[in-house]
Amino acid sequence: MSTSPSPSSSHPLDEALQLAAVAGAPGQYQGQTHPGYWNMVGPFGGVTAASLLQAILLHPDRLGDPLSLTVNYAGALVEGAFTIQAVPVRTNRSTQHWTLSILQADAEGAPVVTTTGTAVTAVRRETWSVGDMPMPEVTPAAALEPIARQGVEWINRYEMRPLKGPIPNTWDGTGDHSTTQLWMRDAPPRPLDFLALTALADVFYPRVWLRRARRVPAGTVSITVYFHARAEQLAATGTGHLLGQARGQEFRNGFFDQTAQLWNEAGAMLATSHQIVYYKE
Amino acid sequence: MSTSPSPSSSHPLDEALQLAAVAGAPGQYQGQTHPGYWNMVGPFGGVTAASLLQAILLHPDRLGDPLSLTVNYAGALVEGAFTIQAVPVRTNRSTQHWTLSILQADAEGAPVVTTTGTAVTAVRRETWSVGDMPMPEVTPAAALEPIARQGVEWINRYEMRPLKGPIPNTWDGTGDHSTTQLWMRDAPPRPLDFLALTALADVFYPRVWLRRARRVPAGTVSITVYFHARAEQLAATGTGHLLGQARGQEFRNGFFDQTAQLWNEAGAMLATSHQIVYYKE
Fold first, then answer.
1. For strand B130-131 and strand B95-105, is the pairing parallel, antiparallel, or unpaired?
2. For the Acyl-CoA thioesterase-like N-terminal HotDog domain, which residue ranges apply (chains A, B) (predicted)?
3. Residue of chain A whose Cα is closest to the Cα of B211
4. Which of A110, A195, A222, B159 is most deeply buried (CB count within 10 A of its CB)?
5. In angstroms, what is the C-alpha Rg of chain B?
6. Class of domain A141-279
């Protein structure tokens, strides 16, 4: 007699984010890279970030929900097993501070740090609230067709409907802005949670490609995600589309920064994000 | 015979950022809180962030200049001595990844983590570059008077010339935006470097005060600074004014985020910054 996996556990994102607690080592978890989220020379960074958050969510001592997450990509993960260490270094009344790292064995079997990070989780209370950056008025997701699947493997795990600033068709150096807007969600659709939201915050292709209309080597060095939504709000968003918006601010001597906002279809800001990205030439 | 301190070492910022290497403990530095940068219940967070960067700059194994810095305020520092630990966890060909922490003894003398962080330093090479967020056209600093010194002690260490969104005069709940623009520099003027720039990125008062025109308890939980300038560009900026711009994006259930940009008078983007801030009520 065989047991079917539940619909949720069979989603590729849930497969990619599966972690096993290491017995006798609090906060230590074993994971495996997933071929479905492979990028050019390592896993999609959004899933790496979500894996670190997963370790926090699995930790028995966790207080509250994600508030902020910073992930630094020190080196590309190679295919195979990795170890996450998540340490709650300080727990206050309503906030908890985490340090994070990913280790992988090198060719000689010695552990090497591939990724570092910090996070804050928090118990949130209802307060005066206001959105001060309204969602742009755009064509609804339902009125647009998703783009054909293409490129590196992880991109196929997302349904994307570009509104502005799609990946250039011709790399002719004519770019004049760095703003992308698109509707996006997991493919196949999966109910939104903090893990999926984290990965979605890193979906945007490198701004330098758009600004220059030139495809140069580029990779995220550090990303920060600020979570503005509660778990119930993510659950209510369900498998709906998110409007993602990203733009660069400064491209200077090998690195640019990017700011991003993610709203649900109801216009609620779920997360904001920033990253600094290496580029060549 | 007495020796006069050099002009630089007598600046309050340099006093506040003085660290002493702990013999036999690589990357460990002892510092002291400085009364000149005192906030309400601890030191000005910008100086705490700059102290962490100082530990990196003093570290004998450092590669390159600051690229990104994330600081998480886990608990207020108390007056007196503190210990910084700066660890270069991974050094690549042109980037280096750091983990950071500040420890202070609690009432029983046991070390407690007050602050965590990560940073990336990098060797930067000349590449194609462009500023994609031009400096707003504003009244030059020289045409404005600095505001009178006021409030908590650290504010007196900065010369500020507000252009837009000054601290409200009346707390009557009539706020309708969260954008502040001001010219700013150290007081007394001090040649700009990465340390001063880091602290300046945190000068902005809590956006929630402006958005609500209501003064509620608020404090930074986590700040990230991305550095876009080289050391030579900071040196060329000298004691000139910086245009700082900050705005909130989402105020939701006890936390808001803030994005900020810092340009020099010549219009060069020197740093961008983001933070997530706790607020009450």
1. unpaired
2. 35-118
3. A132
4. A222
5. 19
6. mainly beta
The verdict on A43 touching B (C-beta cutoff 8 Å) is: no
Query: At residue A234, what are phi and psi to the nearest 5 degrees?
Result: -70, -40
B67 in reach of chain A (CB within 8 A): yes
Establish if B278 touches chain A: CB-CB under 8 angstroms.
Answer: yes
Do the domains spanning B12-122 and B144-279 agree at the CATH topology level? yes
**Would you state the pLDDT for residue A150?**
74
Contact B127 A68 (CB under 8 A): no
Residues ≥6 apart with Cβ < 8 Å to A171: A213, A214, A215
What gap in Å lies between CA A198 and CA A225, rounded to an integer?
7
- A230 interfaces chain B, CB cutoff of 8 Å: yes
Residues B144-279, CATH architecture:
Beta Barrel (2.40)
Is a pLDDT exceeding 70 seen at residue B6? no
Res. B150 pLDDT band, cuts 50 70 90: confident
- Which candidate, B50, B63, B17, places its Cα nearest to that of B36? B17
**ipTM (interface predicted TM):** 0.96
Residues of B in contact with A70 (CB under 8 A): 70, 118, 222, 224
Three-state SS for A155? helix
pLDDT value at residue A1 = 37
Q: What does the pLDDT look like over B10-23, one tens digit per residue? A: 899 999 999 999 99
Q: What is the mean pLDDT of chain A?
A: 95
